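Key idea: predict the complex, not the pieces.
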Amino acid sequence: MFRKFMKTTLLTATLLTAASFAAFAQQPDFHRILQRVDELNNFTTDFSAVFTVVSEKPGQDPSVTRAQIFRRDPKKQFLIVILKPDTQKGQGYLQVDNNLWFYDPQSRQFSHSSLKENFQSSDAKNSDFNQQSLAEDYTVAGSSDGKLGIYPVYVLDLKAKNNEVTYPHVKLWVRKDLEIVLKAEDYSLSDRLMRTAYYPNYAKIGDKYFPSRMLFIDNLNTGNKTQITVTDPSIAALPDYLFTKAYLERVNR
Amino acid sequence: MMIALRNLNRQKKRSFLLGGAIAFGILIITLINGFAGSFVNNVSENFSHLFGGQIFIDGFEKSPSGRRISIIRDDSVLTDAIKESGIPTTYITKASSFSGTLIFQNNTAAQQVVGTDWQKASYVRSRLTLVKGSFANMDNPHGIIISDRVAKQLKVELGDTILAQLRTATGQLNVGEFQVAAVSHDPGLFGSIAAYANLQYVNTLLNIRSGDYQTLGIFLTQGENMDVAAAKLYSVLKGKVQMFKRETTTASTNPFTAMQRATQNETWSGTKYRLYTLNDRLAELKQIVGTLNTSGLVILLILLVVIMIGITNTFRMIMYERIREIGTMRALGMQRPTVRNLFLLEALFLSLGGTVLGLIASAIVMTLLHLINFGLNTPLFLLLKDGHMTFDLKAGQLIGNLLIVAVLTILAAYFPARKAARLNPADALRSTH
Amino acid sequence: MKRAYTVLLLLLLAAGAYSQDQSTGSNPPPIPTNPDSLFGSPSTSSVEGSGGSTGSASNGGGDQTGPSTQSPSSMFQGGMVEDVTKSKAESSATAATSLLKSQGIQFGGSIESTYTAYGFWLGAYPDLSNLASGYTDQMVPVLQGTMFFDARPDQHFRVFGKAKASYPFQVSGGTSSTGVTSALGVPPTQTVTPNINIFELYSDFDYKNKLYFRVGKQVVNWGVGYFFSPADIISVTPIDPQNPTIEREGPVAFKVNMPFAEVDNLYLYLVANQSFATGSAFHLNDVAVAPKAEFVVGDYEFGLGGYYQRNQRPKAMVTATGSIGKIGVFGEAVVSRGADGTLVRQGGAMGYETYTDTTTPYFQGTVGFNYMQSDWHLSLYGQYYYNGQGYADPTLEKEAYILYAGQVAGTLPVSPQLSLQDLQLPARNYGAAVASWSNIKDSNVTLSLFWEGNFTDGSGIVSPSVSYKLFDHASLTAATHIAYGGQSTQFMQTGHMSVSLQASLGTGDF
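Result:
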């Protein structure tokens, strides 16, 4: 009897130890996951897509704007051409490095300005417009397994590493198999939920996953929502002539 | 002189009308000068109560990433310097503030929120007229006093909980909750300057340690010159802590914005302080006062020119009317300069009389205007002192105005006077006019 | 990407709101009232990735019916990820070219419909005790429509045309409708509005996306100035400082553009303007030649250009745009051999005479700034202009007005003749500024203050205005124009003061 007891105990202990080792071995490297999430947002190739932004506010008609975006991140080139509303179709912005041109089809004139100064106001500059990196700015303070719909997810609790990161506390739902973000909650310093972002649809282009539908809910102003849908995404090479003033002038009426 | 006075007395109605015209011009210019003179004092005083002082010290640190952080941590060196400088202070205020968005059920309002120690903030109490609630409600650490315009925009009532979205001192997003403790009257043009809350809670929202704050304000004793006091304090502080260069007002630069720019562009370690006065912040006011005084002078000159034309014509008429009298005087041996000076003296006395009348009239009008209590509920409350108009006249201005009037009046009478003096006595006596 | 989204959101939301688009093309799925329902639940039926990358059809259906009865995670069904690697890989270049090509012809236009009541005092400032003295009033309706067509049968070929028609829609001869308004803001009563005016008609084509051509009547803007632009050599009409943003007519020209080094450009214009012709026929050597180069250095863009036409004054110009801090700055410098128009000098039988100068070099330059504060809806523009061809002596300027008046009346034998263009900016030094504060405290009120001054003769005009938007496409604007300066100075020529009330009803684009 005693032998049986010992055998059972030993077996249980062995199994438990093996299981804990296995669990330890399977504990994901969350820092790497965050890095991967960051990388998903960076394109080393050309990128183009149509963005449709629908903005809803209570008591107002939804506003819809649609634009074609062309990007060449390594060279800091960016072109946006407005497709809707019709009265602004063809208007566009060309950015190369820190230079921004806006073309006004009415006066047929380009307005040139320096992006660096335009978007840098006294307090709002760096954290909003510099490339924010989850992996560099946050530590994973807690994690758990969960489910969002039918998808198993890691629920990661991120805390900012320093007191200059815009959102001190972020919660992420990361799909386990593909390591893509499905949902994100941004909290204030007082731990109040400020914004919730949903990424219910992705497009796979090569080995990159790109959110093709994004929904942003303003949790402070109830009813304020913005949805961005991305259609026709492509990482195929873009012609060089795209990032020129001549092209911007041609697409305008 | 007696003859001149007697002559003025002979035509009382005419003299009264001419003198009255001069008096009217003096009345207008004196009122403008007086109001302009007190304009800066009143606005200054009212703003000093709303801003929390006349001299201010801000502290700044630079984070490793280059972000400018507004903070005063250890103020003992500042308070010691204040004592050492010997400037006469009434009290010292400590405040932190943020620019954020107040939110209530989908209604939003951008607002500056100033956190101050309400136990000691009697200076703000005296300048805020509450239309709802009471200062006692500010015992609630989350209490906030907002203006009625903001309350209307947010559609809040007393006791409602409003959210405030802001950025901390280091730029992180934060959200706080305030309860509406009171609603103050919005004085219009200069209104909605700030909402007021408790320093401790504002510090919490800004993620500033308790005991730290952002701005130190100094109330000087009544009548003290803030620029002189600021210069004294600055020289003491310069020897103890890092200070931003103190810009002086020039015609084209606003010293406050010049100092603001310096905090963004320079780099330093530790805390660097910026000292400025209410006058620096209100530099534009001086330009307004200057403009007021100049336009007043221009108005006076225009008025006077019009009046002087009238005087010249009138003296010409007087000359024709008294041509036989002039002839008689000349025939009796009165010399030309004497005849001329007679007329000029009449003009001088006219101007003096008119000026004196004008000053008396101004004094009466100013007293009557001062008695009116406009209250704090008017858009002009910042221009008033406790709801009353005040006038601050400088002796130099009065004397200057008097001299201008005298000179112009004499000039106006000069040509007719000279012409009268040159009359041939025989022709004058023969005249049938 | 986050930066791109933020920039995108800012730019798109700033570009303007528009109600839900019902036209063809894929409509975005409606925003769900219960976002958690986006993720669906294992119990609901799943629909695999349908056409378009916007996900399953259940999203649309479930989302449109208000608070969802589905469990919170019903959205994330199968089909969440759509592999577009193969199907969309070729689309990138197509996207680039699709914007240059369209199936049909696009039409559009605008209508301007404003009705302004003016009251003005010409000879003197209003006498407060007797406002009726010297007062006269006028009602000026402006009804103008533009129509354009844009045909893009091919990515390498495009035809564009724009026509304008203005009330009273009848031709009776006279100057262009873009003539300069008087100092008091009242359009000169002798301006005759033409019938349908072809404003632009040109075709665009290119050579292998390396050289781009535009041939026809086209708007051309060379300068970077806001109120004054001496470098705007090619445009037919100059900028009206009091209306700097209105469309200005351009010439018939042939333009070739060669982009190089990513953001730099070379241009060559050949301008064929009938007014250049010597004699009755237009010859090949009457064509004006104007080359231009644009290049970017750091955060500044520079332009260098030249202009030659055998009957006109040759010119060279330099432009620059950039920013200093949050303030945009711009500048122009132009050197010409000879003066463009007719000048006045002392001499001749009348004491003053007109003459032309074709050899003396003249310099014109301008610097300016602009500043926008979007939080406060504030915008500021300011500019200084040095006109080397203008009169430094205000007496000559006054004489020019006198001679012109005599010339028009036929009472003075002026030769060479003066034109209205010679009197638009006749002095040496000018300044202009405008400050605008719109949607004050989130209201429908906009305040604006405009000033233009002639530093040489000390005259100018100040024009404050307040505008109130009643509702979309309807607004009221009250303005007053106050001129200052000595008698017969530039801005006092046309009157001392005016007030106006304008109703804009139904103005808009389509």
